[in-house]
Amino acid sequence: xxxxxxxxxxxxxxxxxxxxxxxxxxxxxxxxxxxxxxxxxxxxxxxxxxxxxxxxxxxxxxxxxxxxxxxx
Length: 72
Prior knowledge:
alpha+beta; 31% helix; globular; 2 helices
């Protein structure tokens, strides 16, 4: 069973300065991080809802980039 977890992280860019964005960690049953996707969105609710949908459907990690692109 995989878990998709939203993780807040601090970022900095020349255009935006400092900001908080949310990464997605995909974790297996042994709590190993299989994949970490950085800076998905600054919208916590969007990333949290996306993780909940991925968890409910047990999305295969191979599809996560397409799902993020379609969501954003």
